[in-house]
From TrEMBL, chain A:
GO terms for cellular component: plasma membrane. It is found in: Cell membrane. Residues 112-339 form the ABC transmembrane type-1 domain. The chain crosses the membrane at residues 21-43, 118-139, 151-173, 216-235, 270-289, 320-343. Signal peptide: none annotated. Belongs to the binding-protein-dependent transport system permease family. This is Peptide ABC transporter permease. Keywords: Cell membrane, Membrane, Transmembrane, Transmembrane helix, Transport. It is a multi-pass membrane protein. GO terms for molecular function: dipeptide transmembrane transporter activity.
TrEMBL record, chain B:
This is ABC transporter substrate-binding protein. Keywords: Signal. The lineage of its organism: Bacteria, Pseudomonadati, Pseudomonadota, Alphaproteobacteria, Hyphomicrobiales. Residues 79-457 form the Solute-binding protein family domain. It comes from the Bacteria. It comes from Xaviernesmea oryzae.
Length: 353, 545
């Protein structure tokens, strides 16, 4: 009797705790979104660009300017404009982009997959190459290898990606003809190939269109590797520092004393522990790439989010900017959640609590 | 950001120079043989509806895909030639224009082209009241009277009644603008959406505006198949075109922003034409085997203007002195090489009455003397709003240096294009560097903005360039208006010559150069030419080997 009662009580306590957790999470989520919206909205309104100018151009007659200003609600006080905007968002209406004249959501659905594909490609490369490099640097600390890895990281950190991108384009596309350019896919395929998920590489493989897949790969490989390099620079440095912290722990000494092989100690024990904070690092770097690397997208004529938001911002196309910011904000929040979840899986201590 | 890009870009050029020492591979053609592929930065397109669009890139699309009653003669730009019209005449009182249409013409849809379509096209442009509507409303057309003033008398006769006895050359020049492009009434109205009338918009239909923003209902050599913002514009040959059929099946404008990227893709044959080459890339393309360059002067002039609200800048000696502080020769030889030619009058070369006077050159001593006369022996300080894009940034920096030699301290305030323009339109600048492109190929377009200011108060409805610089010139305004009503073309030209001389001597405008549009293209492309205006950049004459 007493045993079941206490189990029920514990169960109840656990479900209230879950409810509480969910509630707290929702509050954080809503405040984050509100803050995101408010900041973007007000920045958008204080930039010294007249949005009507962006819609009508420089030559429009005064009557047309007044009409559009009223249509956009720009003659209302700012707080009222903000409330109207929030109401629209809540009813699922993100407004229409001035530049493209499409609903903002349609636009984002079109440009986001391009960025997602590129960012995923970049992060994969950054992770697959960056982590072993970081481990290597930590294990061979202060040797020539460590210095070499540091140099690679430093270069990735400090060279302007725009310059590197053009230089690589000149070499791999212009001289060597290894990669394809511009955009995501060759014109010849643009009319025959119908994507399903809008992630072209995946789509082509799913449809077993190997020549399309090859063409898409040739388009993505250079910008993807460039972004990968930037993310690699960050990931390898962080891996090195996490590894060094872990290598100084007592359990490593214990493992060594037990006579475990050095390889096993490093890859199975130390890396496993270093992996916990690393997950956050990778997630952050992925989120950073998802923002759309404006310069990379510009150089490669890659129709992604970065290019979209920059162009919109320059025309004071606030609906588009706000919509884009929300999507990126959501991606950030989702990735944070994901890394939290992974944290729990990787670190048993957080699971128990 | 752009400035930074430019700087890193020059670094790249240095790198490129080294890299080009490596042997060059033969050029491989990758663009399909029946398709012309152009690399083009068409960020400005917001709609491809001719009744709404007023952007330069869209002018090219409309020019290739729609027909008008009359067209600019590309070989002699002071003349117009018939397109849909077989003939035209004007009544003795110069108020009514009658156009006879060529018989048996068809839209791409297969519908016949009638005077009814012409009248409808004007009606919807006026009633929609979008950016280019003023071109038609300046003739006295309004939403209330347009069906009376612009109407079909019979299926092949269209009449247009204007409110004043304008110079016929003026009316016809305006009718070559893309807002007068003829749309397919039957098709457009079948796609029109109902609208609830308000006091701002009194009609119960959108006249197909929503459909035409991305759709097509014309009769030109090509059809608009798709416009995807910042991706591509796709044109396909119109099988029902009444003129000589286009040689290529497709034209694709591929969105490419960077000059260096365009050059690379052109060299590799992935694009056939590169449309936004900067001077450095232009020069290297011109030297490359298998590639060619072409150029055409366009109706856009670049100027520095002095806000007359600033008491220092309002002194006539200061206005004149500033004209001596621009190093025209150096700018012409370096900064605008290939993209512009030095030009000091407000009418672009090629327009009726345009003169080529270039009385000013860099003369610091003369400028100093003038400034001393105005009471600025020890110089003065001004701010300068500059959009961060080449070549204007370079010109502004050059001016800053030469002006400093005469004791004028110039503080450059860099900004995004729309940002500096917003400030300029609010008359809050000291100095501003900008450009003015003719809205239609008639001298009135530029004269009206440079030399007329009907109301110099802050809430004026007519924000011409003269107004934006608070240049209050009632006599010049009157003279500009008189030119509009001068039926004799030679006399009309004489008035514009006089206006240009006056502006040259005394205005707050330091006019520096006229834009030249350039393009690099593969020599596989035959007959590629740039026209005198953006709507005459025709692609339908182009063929490929």
């Amino acid at each position: 009797m007493t045993v079941t009662a206490s189990t029920a009580g514990r169960r109840r306590a656990r479900s209230t705790k879950i409810l509480f957790d969910v509630g707290r999470f929702l509050v954080v989520l809503i405040t984050t979104y509100l803050g995101l919206l408010a900041v973007t909205f007000f920045i958008g309104r204080v930039i010294p660009i007249d949005p009507v100018l962006a819609i009508l151009g420089d030559r429009a007659p005064a009557s047309a300017i007044a009409r559009v200003r009223a249509e956009m609600g720009l003659d209302l006080p700012i707080w009222q404009q903000f409330l109207i905007y929030i109401r629209q968002i809540l009813s699922g209406d993100f407004g229409t982009s001035v530049l493209t004249t499409n609903p903002v959501l349609t636009d984002i659905a079109r440009v986001f997959p391009a960025t997602l594909e590129l960012a995923t490609f970049g992060t994969l490369i950054g992770t697959i190459v960056g982590i072993p490099l970081g481990v290597l640097a930590a294990v061979k600390r202060d040797t020539l290898i460590d210095q070499a890895v540091r140099l690679i990281g430093l270069i990735g950190y400090s060279i302007p990606i725009f310059w590197l991108a053009l230089l690589c384009l000149l070499l791999f596309y212009g001289k060597l003809d290894w990669v394809a350019f511009p955009g995501r896919i060759d014109i010849a395929y643009e009319y025959t190939f119908t994507p399903i998920t809008q992630l072209f590489l995946l789509d082509a493989i799913l449809q077993r269109e190997w020549d399309v897949a090859w063409d898409v790969f040739r388009h993505i490989v250079l910008p993807g590797c460039l972004l990968g390099y930037v993310s690699l620079a960050y990931i390898s440095r962080m891996t090195r520092s996490f590894m060094l912290t872990e290598l100084g722990q007592e359990y490593v000494v214990a493992a060594r004393a037990k006579g475990l092989s050095e390889r096993r100690i490093i890859w199975a024990h130390v890396l496993r522990n270093a992996a916990v904070p690393l997950v956050t690092v990778i997630a952050l770097s992925y989120a950073g790439l998802l923002e759309g690397s404006v310069l990379t997208e510009t150089v490669f004529s890659w129709p992604g989010v970065g290019l979209y938001i920059t162009n919109s911002l320059q025309s004071a196309d606030m609906n588009a900017v706000l919509g884009g910011t929300l999507v990126i904000g959501s991606a950030f929040i989702a990735l944070n959640l994901l890394s939290d979840l992974l944290y729990r899986t990787l670190d048993p201590r957080t699971r128990a609590r | 950001m752009t400035i930074q890009i430019t700087k890193t870009f020059s670094l790249l050029l240095a790198g490129a120079a080294l890299a080009s020492l490596v042997a060059v591979q033969p050029v491989l053609a990758a663009s399909p043989p029946d398709t012309l592929v152009e690399g083009f930065a068409f960020d400005d397109i917001i709609s491809v509806d001719p009744g709404e669009a007023f952007e330069l890139s869209t002018a090219e699309i409309t020019g290739n895909c729609y027909s008008m009653l009359v067209r600019l003669n590309p070989d002699k730009t002071s003349e117009v030639v018939n397109e849909l019209a077989e003939s035209w005449s004007v009544s003795d009182d110069k108020l009514t224009y009658t156009f006879k249409l060529k018989p048996g013409l068809k839209f791409a849809s297969g519908n016949p082209i009638t005077a009814e379509d012409v009248a409808f096209s004007m009606e919807r442009a006026v009633k929609l009241d979008k950016s280019p509507a003023f071109l038609l409303t300046q003739f006295g057309l309004t939403g209330d009277n347009v069906t009376e003033k612009a109407k079909a008398v019979d299926p092949t006769t269209f009449t247009l009644t204007v409110d004043k006895p304008y110079a016929p050359s003026f009316v016809l020049n305006v009718l070559t603008a893309t807002v007068a492009a003829v749309v397919d009434k039957k098709l457009v109205m079948s796609k029109a959406k109902p609208v609830t009338p308000t006091d701002k918009y009194k009609y119960d239909t959108d006249f197909g505006n929503d459909f035409l923003k991305t759709g097509y209902a014309g009769s030109g050599p090509y059809k608009v198949v798709a416009w995807k913002a910042n991706e591509a514009v796709v044109l396909e040959a119109n099988p029902n075109y009444f003129g000589e059929k286009p040689k290529l099946k497709r034209v694709i404008y591929r969105y490419m922003k960077e000059s260096a990227s365009q050059r690379l893709a052109l060299e590799k044959g992935d694009i056939d034409v590169a449309r936004n080459l900067e001077p450095g890339d232009m020069e290297s393309v011109s030297k490359k085997e298998g590639l060619k360059v072409t150029s055409a002067p366009k109706g856009t002039v670049y100027f520095i203007s002095l806000n007359q609200k600033n008491a220092d800048l309002a002194k006539p000696e200061v206005r004149e002195a500033f004209k001596y502080l621009v190093d025209y020769d150096a700018i012409g030889e370096t900064l605008i090489k290939g993209v512009g030619t030095i030009h000091q009058t407000f009418l672009p070369t090629g327009q009726l009455g345009a003169i080529e006077d270039k009385p000013y050159k860099l003369d610091v001593a003369k400028a100093k003397e003038l400034l001393a006369k105005a009471g600025f022996k020890d110089g003065l300080s001004v701010t300068f709003d500059v959009r961060n894009i080449q070549p204007v940034t370079g010109i502004a920096e050059s001016f800053q240096q030469t002006a400093a030699q005469a004791g004028v301290k110039v503080e450059i305030i860099p900004g995004d294009g729309k940002q500096t323009l917003t400030k300029f339109r609010a008359r809050k600048h000291d100095l501003y560097i900008g450009q003015w492109g003719s809205d239609y190929f008639d001298p009135n377009s530029n004269a009206e903005t440079f030399t007329s200011n009907t109301d110099n108060s802050d809430d004026s409805k007519n924000k011409t360039l003269a107004w934006r610089n608070a240049w209050d010139v009632p006599e010049l305004t009157k003279e500009t208006q008189s030119a509009l009503l001068e039926p004799d073309s030679a006399k009309r030209a004489a008035i514009y010559e006089d206006l240009q001389k006056k502006v040259l001597a005394d205005s707050p405008f330091v006019i520096i150069y006229q834009q030249v549009e350039v393009a690099g293209y593969s020599d596989k492309v035959k007959n590629f030419k740039l026209g005198p205006s953006f709507d005459t950049n025709f692609v339908y004459t182009v063929s490929k080997d």
